[in-house]
Amino acid sequence: MATVKGFIFDYSKCVGCHACMVACYAENSTKPPLSWRQINHYNKQKLPLLGFVHLSIACNHCKEAPCVNACPSGAYTFDVDTRAVIHNPLKCLGCKYCTWACPFDAPKYNAEIGLVEKCNFCNHRLKEGQIPACALNCPTGALSFGDLEEKEVPDAFGLSQKAIYPRISIIGSEVKELVPQMDCCAVAEDASRIRQMEVSKSYVNPLAEWPLVLFTFIGAFLTGWQISSIFESSISLSPWLFSLLGGIAMIISTIHLGKPLRAHMSIFNLKTSWLSREILLFGLFMITGFIALLSDIWWLVIASAIIGFLFLASVEMLYMVTNKKAGFSIHSGNSIAIALVFASLFSMQWDLLIVLIALKVAVYAVTIGTKPKGLSSRIALVSFVRFILGFVVPFGLIAFSNIGFRSILVVSIILGELIDRFMFYHDFEPERPFSITAR
What we know:
The chain is mainly α and 439 residues long. Helices cover 44% and strands 11% of the residues. It has helices spanning 19-28, 66-70, 97-101, 123-126, 133-136, 191-198, 210-228, 239-255, 274-295, 298-318, 335-346, 350-369, 377-400, 406-426, and strands at 3-10, 38-42, 53-57, 76-78, 85-87, 108-110, 115-117, 143-149, 168-171, 322-324, 428-430. The radius of gyration is 25 Å and the shape is globular. The model is unreliable at 190-200 and 435-439 (pLDDT under 50).
C-alpha cells in the first residue's frame, strides 16, 4: 500500500507539557486562547490515583476531508505538492459549518475576525523538506512525523472511526487499560464529583444558534403552507406574506455568518456541500413559490412544494455530520416533520394533524427519556411547556371546540413547533476527540 507523510502520536509518551502548542503559536503567529493544536486531558483536575492520559491533536489533513466537502464557498483546497488541506480566509464566510463537520475539532472559529482558522500542516516547512514545528519540538517524542499507510483509520480510543483517512497514526493506546481504578475515599471525592467529570462539553448552544433555528423554522413553516395549497380546503397564503417571511428568513440566516457580506458565496460548492444546496434550493423555492401563489398555476404550486421539500431534505442532510445526545436517532424537531404539521394545519386536515402532533410528542418523550445524562430542571420545564402548547392545547381545541378558536390553535402550534426546533439544536453535538472516562 502507498504511504504518505503524517503525524504519529504515542499515548504512552505524552506528558501533556503543551510544547507542541507553544511551537505552533510561535511558528504560525497565532494568538491564544485560540490554538490550532490542542491537548485533550483525561483527569484534567489532576486527582491522585486516577492516572494521567493526554491526546495532542490538530488537523490531520484527511484524504477524504469532511471540511473540504462541507464548506459552501470552496474555502478549503488540497495543496498539489503536499496534499495538505489549506484554508483560504478570503473565501471563508465564517459559517462555522466546517467546525461541525470535522471530528477532530481542527477548524477553529475566530470571533474577533469572523473567520475560521486551522492548522496548515506547516505547509511552508514541508515544501522545504522539514517537518511541522509541533512534531519537531515535542521533547518526549510523543508527537512525531513520518510515513503512514495512505488509507489508514486510526484504531485508537479518542479518535473518529469514520473512513475519512486522516494522516495520523496512533500508538501506545494500551495505556488506557493501565489507568487505575480511583479510590474516591482516598482523595475525599464523592461519586457525584466523579460523574461530573465524565460530562462532556456541549459544543452547540441553541440560543446562540438562533439565526439557524429561525431560518430553518420559517423555511419549514412556508414549505408546509405551500404544500397545503395543493388542497382545496387550504387556508390561502398571500404571495406578499410568503415573500416577506422568506425575505426575513434570508436576512436572519446571514446573521449567523462571520462575514455576512460574503453570503452570495454560499452556493460556490454545490458539488459536495449540503449547505450550498440548501441555500440554492431555498432561493428557488422562494421564486417559484411567489410566482405560483401570484398566478395560481396548479402545476407550479406543486413544483414549488417539491422544491421546498428538497430544501428541507438538504437542511436535514446538513446535520448528518453530528451526533445525537440521546439514544434515539429520530428527532421530533426534524424540519420535514414540522412542515407536515403545518401542511395539515393549513389544509384543515384535523385528523391527520392530531396524529402527527401525537407522534411528534411521543418521539419527543422518547428522545428526552433516552438521554444518558438525564434532564436539567430548565429542560424539564421547556419540555412541559412544549407538551402543553404542542399537544394539549391543539388536541383540546380540535376535539372539544370544533375549531372555534382557530387563531389560538395556530399560535399554539407555532410556539410548540418552534420550541421543538430549538430542542433539535440542543440535542445534537459535533463529533469530537475525547478522553477516556472514569470507570
